[in-house]
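Hi C.,

You asked whether I'd gotten around to modeling the 238-residue construct. I have! Everything is below, sequence then structure, no commentary in between.
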Amino acid sequence: MIRQVVSGFLHGHDPIVAERWYYRYHSKECVRAFGPWLRRYETYKTLPPPPQAERFGVRNSFLTELWYANLEDYVEADPYNRKLTPMTSLPPGTAEVEPCHILVPARPTEDFLGKEPALEEVSIMRWFCLFRYPEGVSPEEGERWYLDTHSQEVKEQPGLLKYVSHRALENPLFSGVWHRMSELWYENMDAWRRAVVDSPPRYTPPPWNSEYPFVHLVSVFVRNTPDVDFLKDNPIIP
């Protein structure tokens, strides 16, 4: 099972206009085009980020996940993607920002804490981070630093409830712009701020950059559960 994750979908567009277009047209076209191959098609409205999150390339609007049984299904569905109404059909006057796509295994390739939080006891805020290593840094060098050093220090954040990561899959449909997607869980935004801004662990910088967060990063904040399951729900169109 694999997941196509689109981070910051419709970021920069007028939120009212974008949501209406997404629910009324785009999502329905996707269901019709990819329905025979899709296992899940869910979207999350992003949470308003705090000012301290700007350094992490934070985006707004939506995080969307499309699940396929395997890479072959994803590739087979692709010709239908070219028949979708383009985002340029949105009304003029909104700023178009290219969404960030990554294809990853459905299950994490790493689980750094190896535990699940008790969902009935705490609220959950999920921080999705897509990142790539800088130009000139080989994936092998970047992975050694991330897996052996950085992730081991990140998991010492106070109040971190879950920390998993997915290594990007190679695929023939779009270039591998992003090397990884990591997901970190906190009880709420205050807990994130304490863990990441106020009292973070001491991080060892990589050879290529001494300024945290060390890699090119885009991120979003979402709740634990999706706002819409497009294969099952009939969302109210705003």
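If it helps when you're writing up: The chain is about 25% helix and 25% strand.

Thanks,
B.
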